[in-house]
Amino acid sequence: MLDASAVLAAVSPTQAIERTRLAFERHARGEWEMPAKVYLEAPPNGDFRAMPARGDGFALLKWVTSFPRNPERGLPVVAGALLLSSAETGELLAIIDCASITSLRTGAGAALSAQVLAADRASTAGIIGCGVNGAWAARCLAAAGYGPGVCADRRAEAATALADELGWKMGERSEAARQDVVVSVTPGAEPVILAADLRPGQHLAALGADAAGKAEVELAAVRRCRLFCDEREQASAGGELANGIGEGVVSAAELTQLGDVLIGRAAGRASSEEVTLFDSTGLAIQDLAIAIAVYDAWRDGVVGGQSVTF
Ligand SMILES: NC(=O)c1ccc[n+]([C@@H]2O[C@H](COP(=O)([O-])OP(=O)(O)OC[C@H]3O[C@@H](n4cnc5c(N)ncnc54)[C@H](O)[C@@H]3O)[C@@H](O)[C@H]2O)c1
After folding, report:
1. Ligand 1: which residue has its CA nearest to atom 5?
2. Which domain holds residue 278?
3. 170-201 b/e with 16+ CB inside 10 Å = b?
4. What average pLDDT does range 75-95 have in this prediction?
């Protein structure tokens, strides 16, 4: 059993980005398998998700929450456990903390989307929502060489703490939304990226709206962007771009999958002027890539864990 400290000691943000890239490539080539995730609503508190994937001799199931009002109770939004099994024998190999894996792979996905889709001259970063996953997105962007950045949050203390950690600055939402690479990681209760904020050549990564009914980007802004997603079926069903599809202003066929760009099957950014938007709904293949790295680090004696026998 590997806890959050083991996960974060095993995989750096830079390694998380490399592993996430590999996951998107292998999935796009059809080498890794990922059935659609299952949502189990828990009204009025949030939802559970069951997320399976298989690849490189391993199989995984992540059982994870999104309980947006949990911080009011002093509890995290995202929590749960991840089961890693051998795809050769079916044996359960490890139970791993899932909040830390989720943060690493979500932040790494945002940084990877910037590496692949942002304009060549892009450097500054804006983070809107500096909670648990926003902070890791910022750390991954910094590890990928982006910055300095502007950190914005309704809770000034969260923005200040993140800005101080990275040597960035705290600022207003509208200032963060004007940076070269903008990452939003709020609960998705209202738009935090408006059409009026957009500048030519920006790259946006919308991470917070990862289920039906959530949105962070004004529809008028979505309409001005070239649209990318992590996985078309999932992004069409729930998440940032699902709203546009529901309203009839976006069609699923317009969404280009990041993995397809990575393996050269689809084109990425077409000009230095267009605004690209990456919709992250969160994929089990990302979790698998990080979980394998954590398991390898444990097997190599780099990090410790506790043992149980079932
Ligand atoms: N795409 C993915 O794969 C993925 C992965 C993990 C989490 N998420 C989603 O990201 C969201 C945030 O998760 P978290 O664990 O970081 O939660 P969190 O509570 O730790 O952080 C959310 C932050 O957003 C801030 N915030 C809320 N409304 C805001 C607004 N209008 N403007 C600016 N800041 C605002 C809050 O003050 C808080 O600091 C959730 O909806 C979660 O489901 C998505």
Report:
1. 106
2. 108-282
3. bbebbbbbbbbbbbbbbbbeebbbeeebbeeb
4. 97
